[in-house]
Amino acid sequence: MTRPPSGQARVALIVAGPTCSGKSALALALARHVGGTIINTDSMQVYRDLRILTARPTVAEEACVPHALYGVLPAACNGSVAWWREQALVAAQSAWNAGRVPIFCGGTGMYFRALTDGLADIPQPPPAIRERARALLAELGAPALHARLQQLDPETAATLRPNDGQRLARAWEVHAATGHGMAWWRREAVLPGLDARFIAIRLHPARDGLRAAIARRFHAMLGQGAMAEVEALLAQNLPPDLPAMRAHGVPELAAVLRGEMTRADAAARAIQLTGQYTKRQATWFAHHPCAAPADTFLYEKRFEKDEAAQQMERVGDKIISFVIKRIDAGQGFP
């Protein structure tokens, strides 16, 4: 593969899709073939306390090729999109400096948008205003806070669901601190995305097969020690609104440990909520392309009994061939 002419953007790969669709295995195969560094693009896999429940790559998988931004934050931290963007740009540059291809793998749409389109440079409100926003959310509830935001900042309120308490509180605090709403900041102050030519593999699995795969994986997680992982997390006495405390499976298994839910009911609930989340993920990726059409491979994955071995053998070679041809077409090797 040839190096890009001076001034030409370098290539970065994207492996995107819903939870449990096989992204990590595909990214690993690609990294082996093109000399890649896999960069986490999942908002929950950044937390070191949740290796099992967030299905982070195993220690053995991480040893096969370089990985970045996996398990790098304690659960007590709030890994924001702004933090991830900054770290991701550094990780991509480090990969290029080492002569490797950055491979962004995950299912968090906001992270991918920050990567490809940039991110609004929104000032952090003072602690007192942030505390007031959380107090209002607790006092009024999300729907009433949404109604209040509609009066203050109707443009931003129109983009938020009335039951999305965390984002509503964030929108209220930004307006209270700056006099401008989130929508205004997103238009007027944008930090750039990664200067790269993106080649994307979008996984779009069949719904029925994905639901079954989610159920299999969650029960496997229970067998691998997910309950003990949640118990250790609860022992830290962290605020319940931290992202790690709301990861799929954490609230349900926490309820089991408190004696409020049976293990079977918790598993059923976690599987159901994860399935609902994957539907939202699929919708997001369908409406927010991560690369140009010619540089995008849509993998409409079907789950079969022999999926791990035979499906990767059938489709993996086609995907790898597509990626290599697109890299060569743009002379975008690092």
From TrEMBL:
<feature type="binding site">
    <location>
        <begin position="19"/>
        <end position="24"/>
    </location>
    <ligand>
        <name>substrate</name>
    </ligand>
</feature>
<dbReference type="InterPro" id="IPR027417">
    <property type="entry name" value="P-loop_NTPase"/>
</dbReference>
<feature type="region of interest" description="Interaction with substrate tRNA">
    <location>
        <begin position="42"/>
        <end position="45"/>
    </location>
</feature>
<keyword id="KW-0808">Transferase</keyword>
<feature type="region of interest" description="Interaction with substrate tRNA">
    <location>
        <begin position="166"/>
        <end position="170"/>
    </location>
</feature>
<dbReference type="GO" id="GO:0006400">
    <property type="term" value="P:tRNA modification"/>
</dbReference>
<comment type="function">
    <text>Catalyzes the transfer of a dimethylallyl group onto the adenine at position 37 in tRNAs that read codons beginning with uridine, leading to the formation of N6-(dimethylallyl)adenosine (i(6)A).</text>
</comment>
<dbReference type="InterPro" id="IPR018022">
    <property type="entry name" value="IPT"/>
</dbReference>
<comment type="subunit">
    <text>Monomer.</text>
</comment>
<dbReference type="GO" id="GO:0052381">
    <property type="term" value="F:tRNA dimethylallyltransferase activity"/>
</dbReference>
<keyword id="KW-0067">ATP-binding</keyword>
<keyword id="KW-0547">Nucleotide-binding</keyword>
<dbReference type="Pfam" id="PF01715">
    <property type="entry name" value="IPPT"/>
</dbReference>
<feature type="binding site">
    <location>
        <begin position="17"/>
        <end position="24"/>
    </location>
    <ligand>
        <name>ATP</name>
    </ligand>
</feature>
<feature type="site" description="Interaction with substrate tRNA">
    <location>
        <position position="130"/>
    </location>
</feature>
<dbReference type="GO" id="GO:0005524">
    <property type="term" value="F:ATP binding"/>
</dbReference>
<dbReference type="InterPro" id="IPR039657">
    <property type="entry name" value="Dimethylallyltransferase"/>
</dbReference>
<keyword id="KW-0819">tRNA processing</keyword>
<comment type="similarity">
    <text>Belongs to the IPP transferase family.</text>
</comment>
<protein>
    <recommendedName>
        <fullName>tRNA dimethylallyltransferase</fullName>
        <ecNumber>2.5.1.75</ecNumber>
    </recommendedName>
</protein>
<keyword id="KW-0460">Magnesium</keyword>
<feature type="site" description="Interaction with substrate tRNA">
    <location>
        <position position="108"/>
    </location>
</feature>
